[in-house]
Design brief:
Oligomer: single chain
CATH class: Alpha Beta
Strand order of the largest sheet: 1-8-7-6-5-4-3-2
Strand content: 15-25%
Number of domains: 1
Order of helices and strands: EHEHEHEHHEEHEHEHH
Bound molecules: D-xylitol-5-phosphate, zinc ion
Structural class: alpha/beta
Low-confidence stretches: none
């Protein structure tokens, strides 16, 4: 993959107008829509679930990149498959040794399977999961909230992952992405970037997306 995927996070969008927010992202050239699912257990915040993903699917013509920040993701994967998610990413910390099984379950449903690591999880803990995964999501903030500061140390994990990855692996970064931090991530080998506040707080979301991609 040569191009950088830009996946705006709708966590920072206007929840009262999700359809028009999706249309605005599509028109601005977003590649995917990133959907942050939080359960108030795995993270201290509660957002949206499968019924909202299903509704988004009706109005969204680009891939839905679903980031599950939830406990027991194995119980809910099927809901997101049926809701029409295209990429389903769960957290390694929520599953640990059952991660490989879950990756297989997602892939067998015909979806792309992603695994995410929090700031305190090291790459060597997931080293055997890199090849079986379609996507690795590196968190550069503690998951739970938008608008936090990018953690530079976490970005170094991108390089490490890149070293043991196949060339088809998508290395996605999430948390505190702006035009400056995007540059660091791309230099380290990331090929997909999530951004919430940077995109939705900009005057012109099209140019914000272009700046991240460049
Ligand atoms: C944080 C979420 C992120 C968040 C990113 O737990 O996973 O996707 O929306 O927001 P920004 O880009 O504002 O850090
Ligand atoms: Zn996210």
């Amino acid at each position: 993959m040569n191009n950088i995927v830009i996946a705006p996070s709708i966590l920072s969008s206007d929840f009262a107008n999700l359809e028009s927010e999706i249309k605005r992202l599509e028109a601005a050239g977003a590649d995917w829509v990133h959907v942050d699912v939080m359960d108030a257990h795995f993270v201290p915040n509660l957002t949206i679930g499968a019924p909202v993903v299903k509704a988004l699917r009706r109005v969204c013509n680009i891939p839905l990149d679903v980031h599950l920040m939830i406990d027991n993701p194995e119980k809910y994967i099927n809901d997101y498959v049926l809701a029409g998610a295209d990429i389903i990413t769960f957290h390694y910390e929520a599953v640990k040794e059952k991660s490989l099984e879950l990756i297989k379950q997602i892939k067998n449903s015909g979806k792309k399977a992603g695994i995410s690591i929090k700031p305190n999880t090291q790459v060597n803990e997931i080293k055997d999961l890199i090849l079986p995964s379609d996507l690795i999501l590196v968190m550069t903030v503690e998951p739970g909230f938008g608008g936090q500061k990018f953690m530079n140390d976490c970005a170094l994990k991108i390089k490490e992952i890149k070293n043991s990855a196949s060339k088809n692996l998508i290395i996605e970064v999430d948390g505190g992405i702006n035009d400056k931090t995007a540059k660091i991530c791309k230099e380290f080998g990331a090929n997909a970037l999530v951004a919430g506040n940077y995109i939705f707080n900009s005057e012109n979301i099209k140019s914000a997306i272009e700046l991240l991609r460049r």
